[in-house]
Amino acid sequence: KGKRKIREQCENRRRNSSSSRRSNQPQNGDVVEAVTLFEVVSMGKRAMQSVVDDWVEAYKKDRDVALLDLINFFIQCSGCQGMVTAEMFQSLQNCDVMQKMTETFDEETGLQYKKFMAYPWILTVTWPVDMDNEDYPLVKPGSYWKKFRANFCEFNAVLIQQCQCSILSDSYLMDTIISLLTGLADSMVRAFRHTSTLAAMKLLTALVNLNLSLDASKRNLERLYEVEKSRTTGKRTNSRLDQLEKKRKEYEQKPLEIENMMNAIFRGIFLQRYRDIIPEIRAICIEEMGSWMKIYPSTFLNDSYLKYIGWMLYDKQSEVRLKCLQGLQGIYDQKELVSKMDLFSSRFKDRIMSMTLDKDHEVAVQAMKLLMLMSQ
User: Fold this and answer.
1) What is the DSSP string of 99-131?
2) How distant is the alpha carbon of residue 343 from its chain centre?
3) C-alpha to C-alpha distance for 244 and 214, rounded to whole angstroms
4) Which H or E element spans position 57?
């Protein structure tokens, strides 16, 4: 009953929202309607900010139905044309449910099932067993799918950006997204792992950027507060000072919430996938980590994170080694960051020197460039 109700809500929502998501771009004389998030993003006809704003409005009206649309989006982006059913998770004490989080194959029907937790639901994804592991949106050739990948990455970044002032910290949205992506990233199916890892790493990068801008806003607020405080004499009350004090407390709380989300993604997905058997997945993890270190060094530029880049300098695949070198170039290129690299340099300089003789020409060139930066 619960499953049917949620499916009906989802269908109603899609019918109701089709007017706001209509593309009106004729193809072969027909008007094509983009109804689901996946269709809107993959067609790429609308500005991503307005796509996300529409979704946020839908979430505010009915968050469960909007979230199911988002869940379907991530699953469809993995190339899965199967079916998603959701049932509400009734009790955290139900240990049996946690043991049932499985991925199985039904020989009679020829279908594969993945059952996992995406708080507050238990999701069951069903797809044909012949779903091609080598043919899903992120690995399909051609300019259309290259653009799709860019749109997909942009969607994740804009989602965080547009939710920051409203629903990001409602203890519901991000819990669901993170548990969904963690569940998909643990799949045996390459398409699910690849797509969910890319989404998760882009979300984490967007959260890092958000925390950076919050840091700047917090510093400005502190200055304003001190100026206003110096103007207040004696015991005279100052409503502006009260407002600034209230905002100060908000700014103290928000970065902690965002750091919790960052930690959940890092532990739940990065730590599981940076050693994935698929080199593209390893490369995604290392590339994004390089950007976190560069844009938010106060949190990420330390030996507990740098060790991952150091270890992956020994990766068997050249594309992963290349991402390590490029990430390190971005750090050594900034004079103010070099002082934090002493231990890393002493541990891994020999390895970087040996990479100047790498069998891959591009890796050898970038290793030489990195050594030149390190010697300055």
Assistant:
1) HT--EEEETTTTEEEEEEEETTEEEEEEEETT-
2) 30
3) 15
4) helix 48-61
- Cα 264 from chain centroid (whole Å): 11
Range list of H helices, 232-317: 239-265, 271-273, 279-295, 297-300, 303-312
**CA angle in degrees (0–180, nearest 5) for 150-153-157:** 135
- Best mean pLDDT range from 135-139, 190-194, 353-357: 353-357
Nearest to 127 by CA among 139, 115, 113: 113
Question: What are the tokens at 361?
Answer: 């020409």
CA distance 290 to 337: 13
Three-class SS state of 90: coil
Please report the pLDDT score of residue 227 as a whole number: 80
C-alpha triplet 104, 90, 268: angle, nearest 5° = 55
**Does 25 have pLDDT greater than 60?**
no
- What percent of the chain lies above the pLDDT cut of 70? 82
pLDDT of residue 131: 57
CA dihedral 66, 72, 78, 79 (to 10 degrees): -130
Q: Measured between alpha carbons, how far is 293 from 85 in angstroms, rounded to an integer?
A: 39
Written as six digits, the tokens of 184 are: 């998909």
Residue of higher predicted confidence among 207 and 68: 207
DSSP letter for 19, please: T
pLDDT number for residue 95: 46
| Section 207-236 average pLDDT | 81
Q: How far apart are CA 341 and CA 329, in angstroms?
A: 12
What mean pLDDT comes out for the span 77-102? 64
pTM: 0.85
| Cα–Cα distance measured from residue 324 to residue 286, given in angstroms and rounded to the nearest whole number | 6
* Length of the chain measured in residues: 376
What is the rounded distance in angstroms from the CA atom of residue 170 to the CA atom of residue 308? 32
Tell me the torsion sign for CA atoms 120, 122, 127, 129: positive
Cα angle for residues 211, 216, 219 (degrees, 5° grid) = 125
Which residues 6+ apart lie within 8 Å of 22 measured at CB? 31, 33, 34
| Residue 117 reports pLDDT greater than 60 | yes
